[in-house]
Structure formats: structure tokens, C-alpha cells
Amino acid sequence: MVACAPSEQELYDAGIIELRKGEFKTAIENFDRILEENPNHFDALNARGVAYFELQKWDDAIVNFKAAMKQDSVSYKPYLNLGNAYLEKEEFKDAVVNYNMASALDLNQTDIYYNRGLALLGMEEYEDALLDFDNALRVDPNQALVHFNRGKALVGNNDPLEAINALHRSVSLDDTNGAAFYLLGITEMSALNKVDEGCAHLQQALQLGYNEAQEWIDEFCSSDS
């Protein structure tokens, strides 16, 4: 007796299970089997792109997301995923273009705010980045990374006082982010001349493994800071 071959849906469901388990190569094998028979399968193309993304194979992910986009030009998903892949490649303009498309197709996708803010931050478009970070915080005000990157944008926008407030909020929500303590420390010292507070935050950054703090500590902080 010859067993029946699995259907497209069965292969897709199996691939999604493997994707969620972190078995990305096995997931790709399932999606490959679908696409060998049906190269226009939108969900398999998009999901295979996600699996390649998780493997940090950004270019392979981009190929799949673009192929998915051709099959369904009104779904926000491949645009959002494509934006994320370009963000990882630090191709910020392409990331913003795709985030804008995703947002236009589905205004309820609030995750777009933070990721687009990161891309705008990478482009040094600080005011636009701040708008997106503010929108992200309206959805959930307790996002430590959003406060951290908002602080970075405020520093870039020459607003150190608000940056310090944002960074204090970030470290109060997550006391394991060495980069946030570092930026807080150097901003306090350079903008407000708060050496004791700044040195304390730099020491915290160093304890958390953020070694860039050592140079500032050596130059500006006494040995017993």
C-alpha cells in the first residue's frame, strides 16, 4: 500500500510547528515541499522568509518576502517582515518604505511604530523617530527598550534633559541594560555636570558588561566612585 502524500495544508501546519519550536531548517524543508508544487503559495513564501530571517539569512528572507508580496499585495505581513529584514541589514530607507506600506495596509499593527522608529533613528531622523517611539509608548508605556531608544533619539535631537528622563524610565523598567546606564551616565556628566550620578551609572554599566564605560570612568571618575 502506498501512503497518501501530505496535503499543502498539512505541510504548512507542520512547518509552522517546526518554526515555533525553533527548528528553522526543518520548517524550510516543509515549506520547500509546498513551493515545489505551488510556487505561488503566499503563506508558505512568507513563512519560509520568516524561517530564513530567524537563521539570520537576510537576503534569502528578502527574496521570499518579495515573492509573497507579489502574491498578495494587500497583506501587511510581507511588508512588515521585509522592513524587519532591511532593518537588520541597516538599510534603513528601504526599511522605512516597507514599514510605511505595512502601516498603510493595517493601521492596527502597532509593532510597526517601534521598528520604524529604530530605522529612522538609524537615519538620524530624530524627530520622526520620536513620533514613532511616542506612539509605541501610547500602546504600552512600560517598554524599557522603547524608552531607551527614545532617549537616544532625544540625545541626537539635542534635548539632554528629556533624554535623561527617558533613560531613567528605561533603567527603572530594566536594570540589566548596560547600554542604557552608559548613555544615562555620560549624558548626566556632559549635559548637567552631575559627576557623582554619572559615575555611578557608568559603574553600573561596566558591571553589566558594557566595557565602553571604562574609558569614561578612567578619565572622569575617581577610584572610589
UniProtKB/TrEMBL annotation:
Record-level GO BP terms: receptor-mediated virion attachment to host cell
Keywords: Repeat, TPR repeat
SUPFAM superfamilies assigned: TPR-like
One Pfam family, short name: TPR_16
Domain of life: Bacteria
Cellular component aspect of the GO annotation: cell outer membrane
PROSITE patterns: TPR, TPR_REGION
TPR repeats: 8-41, 76-109, 110-143
InterPro entries according to UniProt: TPR-like_helical_dom_sf, TPR_rpt, Ycf3
Cross-referenced PANTHER family: TETRATRICOPEPTIDE REPEAT PROTEIN 6, UDP-N-ACETYLGLUCOSAMINE--PEPTIDE N-ACETYLGLUCOSAMINYLTRANSFERASE SPINDLY-RELATED
Protein known as: Tetratricopeptide repeat protein
Lineage: Bacteria, Pseudomonadati, Bacteroidota, Cytophagia, Cytophagales
